[in-house]
Every structure is written in structure tokens, then in C-alpha cells.
Design a protein that fits this description.
Layout: H1 2-89, H2 95-225, H3 234-237, H4 246-283, H5 295-304, H6 308-324, H7 338-368, H8 375-406, H9 420-453, H10 460-497, H11 511-531, H12 541-546, H13 548-553, H14 558-606, H15 611-630, H16 634-637, H17 645-655, H18 660-779
Length: 780
């Protein structure tokens, strides 16, 4: 895709470059022509300058000659003035000289006449040359101005082309940068796509293997376990209970609830419209409180008074339809029996509209025939009569399509399944038509109410009634728009949900089979409910998976538990033996204690003076005997200051003589506490040893599992390294291919840049030449 886009862009750039090149050739030709014209004009200007210079030289020579002749004339006049007085004085003597002077004068006169004529001719030639020079100069100036304008235009064209070329160059450079960035992104996307394709291929392979295994398993199960096919005949297949789709049922119930709300609003609007229309008839054009209304309006009012008996059943039928759609049913056209009831109620309302339509039209005609009815009000009444006809026609059309939708639940061949979608589409179109009609009624009635409010006979009761009718019409318009948009939004879902039912294409064949299917569905639900029993509590699956490794290495294994039970039995037997031993020891100690008590009692009776000392000595003897049996005899011969019970007994026996019973209790309690302490220490040591042994076994098992996982990971590492090497090889090959493509693209862009630079240089030369020509023309 990227290479195709690049080739397309390069083709476009090549076309633009060829266009620019052709324009450049045309501009070159125009500049060359202008240069040739300017050279020809230069030559003409040089020739005119030469002729002008010649004429100026001739003019200068003529002026000099004229000055010479004028001076000569002045000299001759002076000589003539001097010769006249001399002639008067010497008339007599100079007759011969006068004749000579007359001859010279005649000669001079002829010469002067010739010079005057020549001067006049030269003046005429100079004037003609001056006029011709001025004319040529004016022509040359006008031509120079036109040439300057043309050069300015050509310069503007050249500047525009230069600007365009610069913009194209910048655009090409930006495109080049964008293409480079895009090529990099495409490289990244290609890498990602390659990885994704590999993953998808692996997933596809795994899925293919899984599905093939499942297919084989299913085919084997079907061939071995399924004795017959119960979907062969469509008549019996229609009795099969379909899969329960709770989401579909909840969606249908929600849609039915919304439709019920819209129908309730529509019923409320229709009730208000008919009721307020009845009130309007009673007060306009004739108020019933003042005068008797016409029999036509009386009949019309009587019929309108019965509107609730026709409108209310619409709401009740929709409510029954909503209640029939529950979570446990299957909602299709064959099972919605209550839709027929709603269609019948709508048919009765259509009959009511047909019954009141002629009276409504006649009532509007009667209003038009009233004396205060203007032409605008008459036009609004005619529009309203047309709108009422359209409203009745729209309701009839809607009732026809709803009746068709109700046929599958009552008559099996009433409507083919192929026509369901077209009927639903027509229902939506009829609802939109109803909305358009209600908008027209609202518009025309608002205009009618505005005109009637301006009438001089308009009462406050009429104004209020018109406002109420207008509000009910607006409510009907809004309700019609909502229900039309609601049906249009859900018509696709209605069409798609018609296939909900048995999996065969025929679906529910008849309402009777649909009813039987619903009964079977109830029985199946009751049977499944009877079979359902509360499950016992168990460990959650996720928790069991998380504790799997712990369970594998725990001490609760069978062998560990058997060993622990054996060890605990051995300990119990040892403890029972020790218990018997200590019980015997306790009996012996009790016998000895009784004998010692008897001896002490006898001694107390025999001795009276040294009773306290003797008792103390005997107590110490008894304590030393008990200490020899337990530990040693040195602890009681001398009083030892210790914190044990023996030390306390020894100190108390030295200080004062307690009772014999309290001393025996202290000794017995001391030995019992000692025995309990030793047994607890022994049990603690045994439990620690068992715990350490179990931990050692668990660690050994974990070590074995870790070694196994290490081997598996090593194998996975080998496979991953092989995959990485393969991917690196593919990456190098793709990278080389992309580098080759990028090098080709860069070469192409370099060639384009070179051509653009050459073109820019040509434009610069053209600009310089045009600037030089313009400067020369300005200087001229």
C-alpha cells in the first residue's frame, strides 16, 4: 500500500513538473520575442537619434548662415545710409558711381532675395523636421510605455511563477520529509504486522487443531451416542423448547414498557382532544347557555361524550400485552396472543373515528357558514377538515398493519414470515405519517385559534377552550413523534428478533404448536427446578490453582502424614509408660509420706520441751530424703538461699514450723509442675524435630520441582533463542529491502531536486534578463 501511494504521488509530481516545464518553455519563448522586439526598437531609436543629430547640425549651420547674412545686410544698409548723403553732395560729380552703385544694389537685392527665400525654405524644413521629430518622439514614448507595461506584466508573471515554483519546492520538501517519516512508521508497522501475523498463524494453527479434535470428538459422540434425529420433521421440531434467552426477554419487556408509556400519553392526549372538542361545540358558534345549538352539533356532542369507552381500551390492551411478556416466556409474533386484543380495541376506536368524522366535517362547514366567519378562518376550517380526513386514514392504515402483525398468533397462514419485515417497516412509516398529520393539525388549529381570538364575539370561555384543545393537540404531536422515533430506532431489533425460536428456518408453524411449546417449556423449567440442589461448599477454582504448587510441596502428603502418625503413636506409648512409672513413684512417695507423718506424730506426743526443734530436724530429714530420690542430698542438709520451692521450704523450716499438710502440698505441687514442664519441653523438642524434618522434605521436593522447571525453561530458552535468531534474519532481510526502497526513493527525490534547482536557475536568469531589459527601457 505504501509503495503504491508513493508511486501515485511521484506520478502526480512528474505530471506537475511536465506542466511547469511546458509553461517555462512558453515563457522563455515570450522573453526571447520581447528581447528581439526591444533590440529592433533600439536600432530604430539609434537611427532616429542619428537623423535628429543631422537635422540639428543642419539647423545650427542654417542659423549661423542666417546670422552671417543678417550681419551682411546690416553692413550693406549702413553703407547705403552713408552713400546717400554723399550722393546728394556729389550728384554732379558721381553719376558714373551712382550707376555702379545701382548695379551693385540690384545684385545685392537679388542676392538678398535668394537668401531670404533659402532662409524661408530652411525654416519650413526645420519646422517640418521638428514636427516629425515630435511625432516620432510621441510614438516612441507611447510604445515605450506599452513596452514597460508589458515588461511589468511579464515580471509579475515571472514573479508569480517563481513564487509558485518556490511553493512547489517547499511542498515537495515537506512531502519528502513526510514520506520519510511515513516510511519509518510503515517499517515499524510492518514489523508489528509481521509479529502479529506469526502470532495469528500460531493461534490459527492451535485453533484448527483444537477444532479438528473437537469435531472428531463430536462426530464420534454423535455416531455412538445419538440414536435418532429429532429435527427431521418441522411439525415436530416446532414443539422443541428453544434455548432460553433471558437478555432477549428483558429487552422485549423493556421495549413493551416504553411502548406502554407512549400509548398512555397518546390515550391521555386523545381523551383531552375529544373532551375539549365537545366543550367547544357547546359554546361555538352558538353558546348552549344562551341559545340552542344545532341538531348536528347535538348529535356530534353526544358521540364525542362516548370517547372514553373507545379510547381507554387501547391503554388496557397495551397493558395486557406488557403483562404477557415475562422473563419465562418466549416472545415472538406467534406467542403474543394479547396483540390481537389490542388490534381489536384499535379497530373499535377506528369505527368511532369513522362515526364522528362526517359530523366533524359538517360542524366545520356550519362554522364557515356563520356570519362572523372571515375568509382566513374559512380557509383554516377547510384545512382542518382535510387534516381530520388524513388522521382517520392514518389510523386505518396503522390498524391494518397491526392487524396483520396479530394474525400469526391466531391464524397460521394469515401472514408469511417473509413479509414480517415489510409489515414492520410500514408500521413505522404509518407512525411517521401520523406524526406529520398531527403537526399539520397543530399548525392549522393554532392559526384558527389566533383568528378566532381576534373576533369581537370571542368569549373568555372560547379562548380557554381553544387553548386547552391546542395544548392537547401539541401533546398528541409530541407523543406521536416520540412513538414514531421509538419504533424507528427499534424496528431493526424487531426484525432481527423474529428469528428467535426453533433453529430450523420454518420456526413456529402454528399458534397451537407455539402454545404447546410454552407448556413444554414450563414443564422443563419445573423439572430443572426440582432437580436443582444446593451444592456443597468447595475451594474456589482460582484459589486451588494458586495453591497447587504449595499443595505439591506441603507436608500434608500421604507418606508424611503416615510417618507423623507413627511417630505420634510412639510418643504416646512412651508417655503412657512414663505416666505409669511416675504414678508408681507417686504412690511410693505417698506411702513414705504417710509413714513419716505417723512418725512425726508419735514424736510430737512423746516430746514436749524441744518440740519445735525436733520437728524442724525431722522436716529437713524428710526433705533431704525426697531430694536424694530426685536430684542429690546436699541441697537440704544446709539451708540454701535459692528461688525454688525447696529453698523456700528450707528457709521457712529454719525460721518457723508450718503445718505438715501445707509442706506436703508444696512438695507435691513442686514435683507436679516439674513433671509438666519437662513433658512440655519434650513435646516442644519433638514437634520442632518433626517440623524440621517436614521442612527438609518439602525443600527437597521443591528442589526437585525447581530442577524440573529449570530443565523445561532451558528447553524453552533454546526454542526462544532459535526463534529470535530466525526473527533477526527476517528483520535483516526486510531491513535490507526497505533500505533499497528508501535508497531508490532518495535517488528519485535527488533527481527531482536537481531538476527543480535547474528550473530555479533558469527562472533566476529570466528574472535577471527581464530586470535588465526593464532598466534599459526605463533609462531610454
Amino acid at each position: 500500500m505504501a509503495s503504491a501511494e508513493l508511486q501515485g504521488k511521484y506520478q502526480k509530481l512528474a505530471q506537475e513538473y511536465s506542466k511547469l516545464r511546458a509553461q517555462n518553455q512558453v515563457l522563455k519563448k515570450g522573453v526571447v520575442d520581447e528581447q528581439a522586439n526591444s533590440a529592433a526598437l533600439k536600432e530604430q531609436l539609434k537611427m532616429k537619434d542619428q537623423s535628429l543629430r543631422k537635422l540639428q547640425q543642419e539647423m545650427d549651420s542654417l542659423t549661423f548662415r542666417n546670422l552671417q547674412l543678417a550681419k551682411r545686410v546690416e553692413l550693406l544698409q549702413d553703407e547705403l545710409a552713408l552713400s546717400e548723403p554723399r550722393g546728394k553732395k556729389n550728384k554732379k560729380s558721381g553719376e558714373s558711381s551712382s550707376q555702379l552703385s545701382q548695379e551693385q544694389k540690384s545684385v545685392f537685392d537679388e542676392d538678398l532675395q535668394k537668401k531670404i527665400e533659402e532662409n524661408e525654405r530652411l525654416h519650413i524644413q526645420f519646422f517640418e523636421a521638428d514636427e516629425q521629430h515630435k511625432h516620432v518622439e510621441a510614438e516612441l514614448r507611447s510604445r515605450l510605455a506599452t513596452l514597460e507595461m508589458e515588461t511589468a506584466q511579464h515580471q509579475a508573471v515571472v514573479d508569480g511563477l517563481t513564487r509558485k515554483y518556490m511553493e512547489t519546492i517547499e511542498k515537495l520538501q515537506n512531502d519528502k520529509a513526510k514520506l520519510e517519516v511515513k516510511s519509518q512508521t510503515l517499517e515499524k508497522e510492518a514489523k508489528e504486522c509481521r509479529l502479529r501475523t506469526e502470532e495469528c498463524q500460531l493461534q490459527l494453527k492451535n485453533l484448527h487443531e483444537d477444532l479438528s479434535s473437537r469435531l472428531e470428538e463430536s462426530l464420534s459422540i454423535i455416531s455412538e451416542k445419538v440414536p435418532f434425529n429429532d429435527t427431521k420433521y418441522s411439525r415436530y421440531n416446532a414443539l422443541n423448547v428453544p434455548v432460553h434467552n433471558r437478555r432477549h426477554q428483558l429487552k422485549m419487556r423493556d421495549i413493551a414498557g416504553q411502548a406502554l408509556a407512549f400509548v398512555q400519553d397518546l390515550v391521555k392526549g386523545l381523551l383531552n382532544f375529544h373532551t375539549y372538542t365537545e366543550q367547544r361545540i357547546q359554546i361555538f358558534p352558538v353558546d348552549s347557555a344562551i341559545d340552542t345549538i344545532s341538531p348536528l352539533n347535538q348529535k356530534f356532542s353526544q358521540y364525542l361524550h362516548e370517547n372514553a369507552s373507545y379510547v381507554r381500551p387501547l391503554e388496557e390492551g397495551m397493558l395486557h400485552l406488557f403483562e404477557s411478556i415475562t422473563e419465562d416466556t418466549v416472545t415472538v409474533l406467534e406467542t403474543t396472543v394479547k396483540l390481537k386484543t389490542f388490534s381489536e380495541h384499535l379497530t373499535s376506536y377506528i369505527c368511532f373515528l369513522r362515526k364522528i368524522l362526517p359530523y366533524q366535517l359538517k360542524s366545520l362547514e356550519e362554522e364557515c357558514e356563520a356570519s362572523l366567519c372571515t375568509s382566513a378562518l374559512r380557509a383554516r376550517n377547510l384545512e382542518l377538515s382535510q387534516d381530520m380526513k388524513k388522521m382517520t386514514a392514518v389510523f386505518e392504515k396503522l390498524q391494518t398493519y397491526i392487524g396483520l402483525l396479530a394474525l400469526p398468533s391466531t391464524e397460521p397462514d394469515g401472514l408469511l414470515r417473509t413479509n414480517y419485515s415489510s409489515v414492520l417497516t410500514n408500521v413505522g412509516a404509518a407512525l411517521h405519517g401520523f406524526h406529520d398529520v398531527m403537526k399539520d393539525i397543530s399548525k392549522h388549529y393554532s392559526q384558527k385559534a389566533t383568528i378566532e381570538h381576534e373576533l369581537p364575539t370571542a368569549t373568555q370561555k372560547l379562548i380557554t377552550t381553544n387553548d386547552c384543545i391546542l395544548s392537547s393537540v401539541v401533546a398528541l404531536t409530541n407523543g406521536a413523534g416520540k412513538i414514531a422515533s421509538f419504533f424507528s430506532n427499534n424496528v431493526d431489533y424487531f426484525i432481527a428478533s423474529l428469528s428467535y425460536g426453533p433453529k430450523t428456518a420454518s420456526g413456529f408453524i402454528s399458534p397451537l404448536s407455539a402454545e404447546c411449546m410454552l407448556q413444554y417449556k414450563k414443564k422443563a423449567a419445573a423439572y430443572m427446578k426440582a432437580l436443582r440442589k444446593p451444592l456443597l461448599e468447595s475451594v474456589p477454582y482460582e484459589e486451588a490453582l494458586a495453591n497447587r504448587r504449595v499443595l505439591l510441596s506441603s507436608t500434608e502428603s500421604r507418606e508424611g502424614l503416615a510417618q507423623q502418625v507413627q511417630q505420634s503413636l510412639e510418643k504416646i506409648s512412651k508417655l503412657e509408660q512414663e505416666k505409669e512409672h511416675w504414678m508408681l513413684e507417686a504412690q511410693l512417695a505417698k506411702i513414705k509420706l504417710e509413714k513419716e507423718n505417723q512418725r512425726t506424730a508419735d514424736k510430737l506426743k512423746s516430746t514436749s520441751s524441744g518440740q519445735a526443734v525436733g520437728v524442724a530436724q525431722e522436716g529437713t530429714a524428710v526433705v533431704t530424703a525426697a531430694g536424694q530420690e530426685d536430684t542429690s542430698a546436699k541441697a537440704v542438709l544446709e539451708p540454701v538461699h535459692s528461688t525454688s520451692l525447696i529453698g523456700i521450704l528450707t528457709r521457712t523450716s529454719d525460721s518457723e514450723a508450718p503445718d505438715v499438710d501445707s509442706r506436703e502440698d508444696l512438695i507435691r505441687n513442686h514435683y507436679m509442675a516439674r513433671i509438666v514442664e519437662l513433658t512440655s519441653q519434650l513435646q516442644l523438642a519433638d514437634s520442632k524435630s518433626v517440623h524440621f524434618y517436614a521442612e527438609c522434605r518439602a525443600l527437597s521436593r521443591r528442589l526437585a520441582l525447581a530442577e524440573k522447571s529449570k530443565e523445561a525453561l532451558a528447553e524453552e530458552m533454546k526454542v526462544a533463542s532459535q526463534n529470535i535468531s530466525r526473527l533477526q534474519d527476517e528483520l535483516t532481510t526486510t531491513k535490507r529491502s526497505y533500505e533499497d526502497q528508501l535508497s531508490m526513493m532518495s535517488d528519485h527525490l535527488c533527481s527531482m531536486n536537481e531538476t527543480l534547482s535547474k528550473q530555479r536557475e533558469e527562472i533566476d536568469t529570466l528574472k535577471m534578463s527581464s530586470k535588465g531589459n526593464s532598466k534599459k527601457n526605463k533609462s531610454r
